[in-house]
Specification:
410 residues; alpha/beta; Rossmann fold; seven-stranded parallel sheet; two-stranded parallel sheet; 16 helices; 13 strands; 13% strand; globular
Length: 410
């Protein structure tokens, strides 16, 4: 179970001030981890990192650039992490056309620096490098890509993520393939994510929310593009499961040689939907309109992208938990609760509590689905962990029991 694996363990999380990084930091804190964050200032305003009030709740909050090897090395040596999740990146396709050098420096050299700092420190740890589903040489075929297929990328962002995959592979084979080192490195390739607290520019859900807040029609620049949509908790559960498996099997066994590699974390085939359908589904929760803003000669963006998740299912016993509709619903509920103003002056405790409730609900649904990473029931966890359990999970379980006993009302 993740709770047992990460509790009281030191975790270095790069990119913790970003959207996915903030969700992962919150989840790790709820798992009892000792979280060290290393990142630039939050990239947006508002920012989920600030909304959750994460800075004072971390063991160490370091403002630093992954392009700074000396600073990274110092943090790794001083904190001695058991786990490293490398999420720091320039994450936007269209921005990579405007700033290709920044994109390659951050996504490629940044990955080199993280792995080099770990190599120099020489301390046993499990490392998960988050890349992207866009790292594949995409031929726009109507089939899912497997982890052993060719890497590539039309735009600088996609290409930089393919390069990061090659960097991780080279470091793994050159420096971390000896059992006595105790360092295991894997990469995680995730699809397009939905979730509350994403305020980035040029991403469809944040763009939708900003338009809805202003009472404007949503301008959709690529309505027919098909993507593997999933809630942000889906790939994060994959990252956590992968890190846990690396830690459990990094003694040089055949299993760790299988686990220390690349993994896709995507949704079921039914969640591969065109952008227009995502927008329409959101408008079922927040009334508004949208318009087709596609133009001839626009910057190239992939029209079709699908991921095979067979490897994660077989080796990690991981699979998606929430359907496409559940992912959109959870996302809409988060924004409807907290997208009041651009200043986002909502109380951080309230935002954190709501976010933790969504993590708890997702984890409980995963447990009910029998997924290995979710472990046993809440009652079993209370017994096994001497009464230590998330209060939000207990509340969720109580509510579930009440619903079953009261015909659906609480």
């Amino acid at each position: 179970m993740l709770f047992d694996r990460y509790r009281s363990r030191r975790v270095l999380l790069t990119g913790h001030t970003g959207f996915k990084g903030a969700w992962l930091a919150e989840w790790l804190l709820q798992l009892g981890a000792d979280v060290v964050g290393y990142s630039l200032l939050p990239p947006t305003r508002p920012a989920l990192f600030d909304q959750l009030g994460l800075a004072p709740r971390l063991s160490l909050h370091v403002l630093g650039d992954v392009r700074d090897l000396a600073a990274l090395k110092q943090v790794v040596i001083e904190t001695k992490p058991h786990f490293v999740f490398h999420l720091a990146a320039q994450p936007l396709v269209r921005h990579s056309y405007q700033e290709p050098v920044e994109t390659y420096a951050t996504n490629v050299l940044g990955t080199v620096n993280v792995l080099e700092a770990i190599r120099i420190a020489g301390m046993p740890c499990s490392v998960v490098v988050a890349t992207s589903d866009k790292c594949y040489e995409n031929h726009e075929q109507n089939r899912p890509y497997r982890e052993d297929e060719a890497l590539g990328g039309h735009d600088p962002y996609s290409s930089s993520k393919a390069c990061a995959e090659l960097v991780a592979s080279a470091y793994r084979r050159s420096f971390f393939n000896q059992a006595e080192k105790g360092i295991a490195v894997a990469t995680a390739r995730a699809g397009n994510v939905l979730g509350g607290g994403d305020w980035a520019v040029d991403r469809i859900l944040p763009d939708c929310i900003r338009s809805l807040q202003r009472g404007e029609a949503i301008a959709v620049r690529n309505p027919t593009a098909v993507r593997p949509w999933q809630h942000v908790l889906e790939p994060l559960s994959g990252y956590l499961a992968l890190g846990s498996e690396l830690a459990a099997t990094r003694e040089g066994s055949a299993k760790v040689r299988e686990t220390a590699g690349a993994f896709n974390f995507g949704p079921d085939e039914s969640a591969h939907r065109p952008v227009a359908e995502v927008v329409t589904s959101l408008l079922g929760h927040w009334p508004g309109t949208w318009l087709d803003a596609s133009v001839a000669g626009a910057l190239h963006e992939a029209q079709r992208l699908q991921l095979s998740i067979e490897k994660a299912s077989e080796l990690l016993r991981w699979k998606p938990v929430w359907s496409f509709e559940q992912a959109v619903t959870a996302t809409a509920k988060w924004y409807r609760a907290f997208a009041y103003t651009a200043e986002m002056k909502t109380d951080a405790d309230e935002v954190a509590s709501f976010t933790r409730e969504q993590i708890a609900r997702y984890s409980e649904d995963a447990r009910r689905a029998g997924l290995a990473w979710a472990g046993g029931s809440v009652r079993e966890r209370v017994s096994e962990n001497h009464g230590t359990v998330l209060a939000s999970e207990v509340r969720t379980e109580i509510q579930n029991v009440a619903r079953r006993g009261s015909g659906g009302t609480v």
